[in-house]
Amino acid sequence: MKSIVCLLLCLAVAAFAQPSLNNESIVKMTKAGLGEDVIISSIKSQLGLYQLGADDLIALKKAGVSDKIITAMIDKSNLGVNGGSAAGSAGQTAPDPAPASSTGTTPPPAATSPAVDSNPAPAPSGAPVPLSGSKIFIAPMENGLDGFITAEIIKQRLPLNIVTEESMSDFVMAGASQKQDDHWYNTVFGGKDKNEGNVRILNGRTKQMVWAGEAGDRSMWFGGLKRGGQRKVAERIVAKLKKDLSSNLR
């Protein structure tokens, strides 16, 4: 009899600990017409197990889930991964303080690690970038370059979490774009790129630049006759960033 009672108690605890929210339930609440505030409050107050890969984010967006709700899902998942409430639910507790010695004196403090420079020099383009898994805000850029860069980050599956508000980000990407005129001497025989862009990524807390890159849209075939526009500029910039991120992960 005791074993049956214990089994029932274990099943009840397991059922209570299971996440009550997931991508499907968020889509259902959205389609049911619940407001953003109601859904976000549910995300913050209930356990959830969300799939937040690039394809999953696109599917949520197509289903009508707003950016604010998606951001709340990302924040909740990051809280669980980084310790937050997940550490408490796993039963982890803070270690007990070291007891005093039998002589009545307190033990010496533990040795501290060496100080780390909080303002490192900016990393040049091509150097490893400490960005993987961070939240990044992409600021508006000329000629819509920011929109093309956002799409390319998702398309090329960079390990970054894009947020829609700068206050929620760890890093900020800003940049500029320019378009050359259409004079014949700028478009043939290896002339200038018709579209050019450059971006930089800055630490949101220290304001230090951690990465920079630039690219044009000129094709390597037939000099400057074949062009790709802002989409090609964004593709090449994001490809450079992906390469640097991959180098950092090796």
Characteristic terms for this protein:
single chain; 2 domains; 8 helices; 250 residues; 5-stranded mixed beta sheet; alpha/beta; Rossmann fold
> How would a crystallographer describe the biggest sheet?
5 strands, mixed
**Range of strand content:** 5-15%
Categorize the overall geometry. elongated
Number of domains: 2
Order of helices and strands: HHHHHHEHEEEEH
Number of helices: 8
Q: Write the CATH fold name of the largest domain.
A: Rossmann fold
Average pLDDT, to the nearest integer? 74
The percent range for helix content is: 25-40%
What is the CATH domain class of the largest domain?
Alpha Beta
User: What is the alpha-carbon Rg in Å?
Assistant: 25 Å
**For the largest beta sheet, what order do the strands appear in spatially?**
2-1-3-4-5
Q: How far apart lie the N and C ends?
A: 55 Å
CATH arch. level architecture of the largest domain: 3-Layer(aba) Sandwich
Unreliable stretches: 81-95, 113-128, 221-226
Structural class per helix/strand content? alpha/beta
How many extended strands? Answer: 5
